[in-house]
C-alpha cells in the first residue's frame, strides 16, 4: 500500500525535473502544444536555462506572443530577472 502512495510523488518529481528542460526546448522550438502540456503537468514556468535566461524571457527572445501569454497565465513572474551575474 505504501508503494502506491509514494510512487506518484516520485513520478511527479522526475517529470518536473525532466520537464523543465523540455519546457525551454519547447519554447525555443515555438511548440505551444508542448508548452501547454508541460505547464499542465506542473512544470515550473519560471525555470532558467544554463545561461540564466528564464522561460518568459526566452519566449520574448523568440517573439512568441502566444507562449508568452501562456506562461504568464500559468504564473510566470513578469518582473523576474535573468539569474546570471553579469561581469563588468
Concise synopsis of the structure shown:
With 88 residues, the protein is mostly helical. It contains 4 helices and no strands.
Textual characterization of the structure:
This protein has 88 residues and is mainly alpha-helical. The protein has a single domain, classed as Ankyrin repeat-containing domain (Serine Threonine Protein Phosphatase 5, Tetratricopeptide repeat), CATH 1.25.40.20. The chain is built from four helices and no strands.
Main attributes?
88 residues; mainly alpha; Serine Threonine Protein Phosphatase 5, Tetratricopeptide repeat; 4 helices; 0% strand; globular; disordered N terminus
Mean pLDDT: 78
CATH architecture: Alpha Horseshoe
Radius of gyration: 14 Å
What would you call the structural class? mainly alpha
* Uncertain residue segments: 1-17
Specify the overall morphology: globular
The helix content is 55-70%
The CATH class name reads Mainly Alpha
Provide the succession of SSEs. HHHH
Give the full name of the CATH homologous superfamily.
Ankyrin repeat-containing domain
* Continuous helix count: 4
Distance between the termini: 57 Å
How much of the sequence lies in strands comes to: under 5%
Assembly classification: single chain
Total E-strand runs = 0
What is the total domain count?
A: 1
In this structure, how is the largest beta sheet organized?
A: none
As for the CATH topology, it is: Serine Threonine Protein Phosphatase 5, Tetratricopeptide repeat
Topology:
Blueprint: H1 2-29, H2 32-40, H3 55-61, H4 65-73
Helix pairs in contact: 1-2, 2-4, 3-4
Amino acid at each position: 500500500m505504501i508503494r502506491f502512495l509514494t510512487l506518484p510523488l516520485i513520478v511527479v518529481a522526475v517529470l518536473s525535473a525532466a520537464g523543465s528542460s523540455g519546457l525551454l526546448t519547447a519554447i525555443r522550438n515555438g511548440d505551444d502544444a508542448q508548452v501547454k502540456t508541460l505547464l499542465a503537468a506542473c512544470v515550473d514556468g519560471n525555470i532558467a536555462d544554463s545561461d540564466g535566461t528564464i522561460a518568459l524571457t526566452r519566449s520574448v527572445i523568440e517573439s512568441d506572443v502566444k507562449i508568452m501569454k501562456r506562461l504568464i497565465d500559468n504564473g510566470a513572474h513578469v518582473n523576474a530577472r535573468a539569474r546570471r551575474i553579469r561581469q563588468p
